[in-house]
Amino acid sequence: MKTLSTWAIATALLFIFQSSTAQPAFLFTDKADSILQNVDKSSMTTGVLFDRAFPASRFDEFNSASDTVDYNFISQVYHELYQASYDRSRLIDPTTMNNMVEWENIRGRIPIMVLDYQYNQLDPNSVQNGLLS
Fold it and tell me: Is residue 121 part of a domain?
């Protein structure tokens, strides 16, 4: 009986994972893209422009003196990196990621996530220096 209930939960979660992979609308990203459409992005080396996502986590100001964070922070950071990425096909949708974490918690396992990511960001002084208007 326990095997049947585990199988039923796994099947239900698989269905949830598959149905949640539709591209969500990112209003902030769409607006940022329309504003930055004429900016030369040829010098971008990462495929991620952090300015395309609303910086709710303030991840760009993260103090590396502390090497651990809580789940809410890392989840928000991942969502922002996902939004900021020009090629999301290589990343797991944030909703799917949260569902996977929940599934592991149900199974009594503690998921660990390490984000080692490079990204590009606009120079904060670009308007003042006449590089962006």
Answer: no
